[in-house]
Specification:
The structure is a single chain. With about 280 residues, this protein is an alpha+beta fold. The chain contains 10 helices and 13 strands. The strands form 4 sheets. The chain has a 4-stranded mixed β-sheet with strand order 1-5-9-8. It starts with 10 loop residues before the first helix and ends with a helix.
């Protein structure tokens, strides 16, 4: 006879107790790593203002639906920096022969420094707001599902909490990552190193485009290209198509993506094409 299921309020505690605690490693010289699935598909809001409209993306066998709450909205591409930090920690530990875990502990200072943010009280408050958005955002996707049309449903962070000692002194933050994200990061073929200057990019479309370019362009000498309407669909942006195309042209003029050169190609009667190729190390200075 099967045992009755645990009340919902007991499950997080049991999950935490079953997972080993992984203390974040020193990250001064740690290369940032990003999960390829997150680089290739529209999982995050590209706007700094709160977005509550869902992201719906379908292409072939790939289905993605992302939803946020009225209170917090959908996690943004800036919030995703926390997941880049987490992926970097997991890969670094694995490569060093240290057992990582979905249950992680770090100080806000360590996370903020790694992702290139300040460490003021306001920065700490923004970090906590990012944790709230990551936890309250729900994702349903067919990516890496092998059982037909079934979807994997999760939040970017299962749970998180602030830690303190008996006297109330802050000890950091503890969080639990979802299986879907953790499994993807542990697979070496599904993670890429990104340029640390990515964290300095300020625009949502700019950040999204760098990740997409890094994923598809990689180190290929001839680069890659997409037509602009397809890029619009793949971005999940709420901007009008003409405004999105204008933003891409502005990025081509700006040439701000680290390690890549962008260009727009036009052919009579055809959609505009965004092409990108890696810039040789010697050309970067």
């Amino acid at each position: 006879m099967s045992s009755p299921s645990l009340p919902l309020r007991q499950r997080p505690t049991q999950q935490r107790e079953q997972l080993d605690l992984f203390r974040a490693l020193p990250a001064e010289d740690m290369a940032p790593r990003d999960a390829q699935d997150l680089m290739a598909y529209p999982f995050f809001s590209l706007a700094k203002s709160r977005r509550t409209a869902p992201i719906d993306f379908r292409s072939g066998k790939i289905t993605i639906r992302v939803e946020g709450t009225q209170e917090h909205g959908i996690a943004t591409i800036w919030d995703a920096d926390i997941l880049i930090w987490a992926a970097s920690q997991i890969v670094e530990a694995r490569d060093a022969g240290i057992q990582p875990s979905r249950r992680m502990q770090a100080t806000p200072y360590e996370i903020l420094r790694f992702i290139g943010r300040g460490t003021s009280l306001r920065d700490y408050q923004r970090l906590k707001a990012a944790f709230d958005r990551l936890q309250s955002t729900t994702v349903a996707t067919s990516i890496r599902e092998t059982t037909g049309r079934r979807l994997h449903r999760f939040s970017w962070i299962n749970e998180w909490k602030e830690l303190a000692d008996a006297n109330g002194k802050p000890l950091g933050i503890e969080l639990i990552l979802p299986d879907w994200f953790y499994a993807g990061v542990l697979d070496a073929a599904l993670v890429l190193t990104i340029d640390p200057t990515y964290f300095r990019l300020t625009g949502g479309i700019e950040r999204w485009l760098y990740r997409l370019v890094r994923k598809h362009g990689g180190r290929q000498a001839n680069g890659w290209q997409f037509d602009v309407p397809y890029l619009y669909r793949k971005s999940g942006s709420l901007a009008q198509p003409r405004d999105f195309a204008r933003d891409l042209r502005a990025l081509v003029a700006k040439q701000s993506l680290p390690g890549y050169e962008l260009s727009i190609e036009r052919w009579p009667g055809e959609p505009e094409i965004l092409a990108f190729r890696p810039v040789p190390q010697t050309a970067r200075g």
